[in-house]
Design a protein that fits this description.
The protein is of the alpha/beta class. The protein contains five helices and eleven strands; from the N terminus they run βαβαβαβββαβαββββ. The strands form two sheets. A six-stranded mixed sheet has the order 5-6-7-8-10-9. A five-stranded mixed sheet has the order 4-3-2-1-11. The chain is globular.
Length: 231
Amino acid sequence: MKIYAISDLHLSINNPKPMNIFGPVWDNYLSQIESDWENKVKDDDVVLIPGDISWAMKLQSALPDLEYICNFNGNKVILKGNHDYWWSSISELRSHLNNNTYAIQNDAVKIGDFIIGGSRGWTPYDNGFESPEDEKIYKRELIRMELSLKAMKNLQQNGEKMIVMTHFPPFNFRLEDNDMTRLFEEYGVDAVVYGHLHKYDKNQKLFYQRNNVKYYLTSCDIVGNKLIEIL
C-alpha cells in the first residue's frame, strides 16, 4: 500500500471554469492528473486531497465533482478547504461518497496500516494575527485538530502510521514552531499534508522535516499536477 497526496483541484465539471487564467500550469491540468493517477495508484493505495476540491457553492452542484473523484482508483480521502463552500453537513456529504471515498472533518479513518485525520486549519501569521477574528479562528482550529488527533490515537493499536491532512500551511514562511506544530509532535504524527498555496518561492518547501514530523506541500499547480508519494 502506498500513500499519495494532491490538493487544490478546484473542480467545476458541470460548469467548467478556465483555470488557465491563473497561468499555463493549469492548461489541461486535469488530464495530467488523470494520467499520473492511472499510472501510479493501485486498488489498495490511498490518495489524500486536502481541500479546495470544487468551485461549487452548494452540495448538489458539487456532486459531479465528487463523482469525478470517487471514480478514480484506490482509496480517496478528502478534506474541506477554504473555497469548499458547498461542504456543510458531513453526514449528507458522506451519503454521496462511494468507491472507497472518505471525508474527514475533525475526525479520523483507518485504512490498512495508516490512520488519517485532520482539520482545515488556519495559517499562523509572521507577526501575530491580522485581527482578533483571525486569532479566534486559529484557536478554534486548534481545538478541532486536537479532536482529530485524539480520534487518531484511539484508532492506533499496532503502531500504525499517523498522517494529518490540513488545508492551510501549518506554519508561517519562516517555518517557525507554533501551537499547531507542537500538537503534531505531542501526538506523534508521522506526516502532515497541506495545500492552499499557489505561488512557489524560496521561502516555501515542497518537503520539510521538523522534530520527526514530515511536511508535504501538495497544491497541484506547485507539484506539476502529479501525485506526491507520502512517507
